[in-house]
């Protein structure tokens, strides 16, 4: 009788420990990374943001710089599982007709927004963040006539 009781108690303790160890942390954040290209070329500089979709219970948002097409949001700055709206911005140095860099009277370089508003301010792009690594690559074909001078 003593042996069966000890075995039963051991099974209960192991089961409880296993259940606790397997429980997911509801506040766990997950990393997000990927690549952004315009017309097949990596975006030189820009930014990407992940904002909670209206009506969801997600209360986190995060953003990252895009450098040479790559972005990376580490786990410590990551996102909770859920659905997010994606906004992507990218810029390039504007050029004069002779190919030299275009500058303002103040001496500041003129940049061009190369990703249209439909992918940033008016974006309808969404992603679902899930436990684990989340990798999202974006590629846009944009007519250069849609590039617009950045206002500052």
What descriptive keywords fit this protein?
152 residues; Immunoglobulin-like; elongated; mainly beta; six-stranded antiparallel beta sheet; 14% helix
SSE blueprint:
Elements: H1 2-22, E1 32-38, E2 41-42, E3 45-52, E4 62-67, E5 70-73, E6 82-93, E7 111-113, E8 126-129, E9 134-135, E10 138-140, E11 148-149
Parallel strand pairs: 1-9, 1-10
Antiparallel strand pairs: 1-2, 1-5, 3-4, 3-6, 6-7, 6-8, 7-11
How would you describe the overall organization of this protein?
This protein has a single domain, classed as Sandwich (Immunoglobulin-like). The protein is mostly beta strands and 152 residues long. A hairpin with a 2-residue loop joins β1 and β2. Strands 3, 4, 6, 7, 8 and 11 form a 6-stranded antiparallel β-sheet that branches.
Task: Give a brief outline of the structure.
The chain has 152 residues and is mainly beta.
For this structure, the CATH topology is: Immunoglobulin-like
Which structural category do the helix and sheet elements fall into?
mainly beta
Mean pLDDT: 85
The outline comes out as elongated
CATH superfamily assignment?
A: Immunoglobulins
CATH class: Mainly Beta
Please report the distance between the alpha carbons of the first and last residues. 82 Å
Q: Which sheet architecture does the biggest sheet show?
A: 6 strands, antiparallel
Strand content: 25-35%
CATH architecture: Sandwich
C-alpha Rg (nearest Å) = 24 Å
The beta-strand count equals 11
Order of helices and strands: HEEEEEEEEEEE
- Which regions are unreliable across 5 or more consecutive residues at pLDDT < 50? 4-23
Number of structurally distinct domains: 1
């Amino acid at each position: 009788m003593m042996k069966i009781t000890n075995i039963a108690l051991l099974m209960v303790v192991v089961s409880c420990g296993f259940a606790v160890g397997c429980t997911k942390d509801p506040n766990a954040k997950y990393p997000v990374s990927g690549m952004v290209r315009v017309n097949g070329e990596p975006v030189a500089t820009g930014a990407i943001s992940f904002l909670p979709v209206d009506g969801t219970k997600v209360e986190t948002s995060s953003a990252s710089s895009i450098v040479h097409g790559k972005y990376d949001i580490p786990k410590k700055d990551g996102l909770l599982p859920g659905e997010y709206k994606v906004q992507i911005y990218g810029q390039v140095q504007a050029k004069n007709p002779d190919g030299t860099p275009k500058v303002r009277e103040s001496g500041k370089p003129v940049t061009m927004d190369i990703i249209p508003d439909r992918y940033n301010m008016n974006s309808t792009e969404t992603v679902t963040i899930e436990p684990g690594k989340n990798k999202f690559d974006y590629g846009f074909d944009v007519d250069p006539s849609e590039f617009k001078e950045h206002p500052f």
